[in-house]
Amino acid sequence: MSLSFHLGALRSHVLCSVFCRPVSLCNQRPLVSFCFDDFPRTAYTVGGTILKSFGVHGTFYAAPRLIDTTNGLGDQLTRDDIDSLLTDGHELGCQTFSHLSYRALPLSTFELEVLKGRKFLRELTGYDPCNFAYPQGHVSLRCKRRLGPQMSSSRGTCSGINIQIADLNLLRANSLYGDLDQMDRIESLLSHNVSGHGWLIFYTHDVRRNHSPFGCTPALLDGTLLLAMKKGCRIASIKEAISTHEIPETPQRRAANVYDRAISGPGSA
């Protein structure tokens, strides 16, 4: 394997090992969550409809500035889509206000982008989108330390399964891209999730037959859902999955968070 692959794996390992907010997983059944990033209209109109047909919920991460726009993922979310998905019982998550990567901004500005997006969606809908996903999966240790304690959870694109312990500051997640030729990989992930009694998170973007490189076909989403349920997994949104576990904030953790903020200061490491 290439040097870049090994360096990427090392970076992912470090990101997932430092500034963690661990919660013990005590699942009675293995969990599977489906997430839709950005989100394009087809994520809800097609993907959300598929989830609804199974009687389950997903998490849709929104960046308000994308409302009523179009890009390579197709038409983006509308206000009606947001209202409808909440009515259907799906979860609305936050993905900054403008869908900007932390790499393009000072940390203090990126923090404001995250909080601005959450505040905008809360004021728009009355629903607090307290679970966050990093745009493009870009995350650093500085971001993780600063933002993690402010959100119920943060999710990136570090692959793997959350087994025994999940890090709420950087939940592991796996891409759900392509068509039915990906089912062997999906079946392997689901089997490992069942054997480990873990929490497996999938993420995708658009859901349509002519999907983008960052989306999937309706058939792949439907097939993954069906296989997960056949294997005895419980399908839950991020919020629903977290709510199954008690996550007390100990005095030590609370003091550590306050101390981190005090010594960091705006825009510092």
UniProtKB/TrEMBL annotation:
Concerning InterPro entries, the annotation shows: Glyco_hydro/deAcase_b/a-brl (IPR011330), NODB_dom (IPR002509), Polysacch_Deacetylase (IPR051398)
- A molecular function GO annotation: hydrolase activity, acting on carbon-nitrogen (but not peptide) bonds
- Entry keywords, A to Z: Signal
Q: Name one GO biological process term.
A: carbohydrate metabolic process
Q: Residue limits of the NodB homology domain?
A: 30-236
Name of this protein: Polysaccharide deacetylase family protein
Source organism of this protein record = Edaphobacter paludis
Source lineage = Bacteria, Pseudomonadati, Acidobacteriota, Terriglobia, Terriglobales
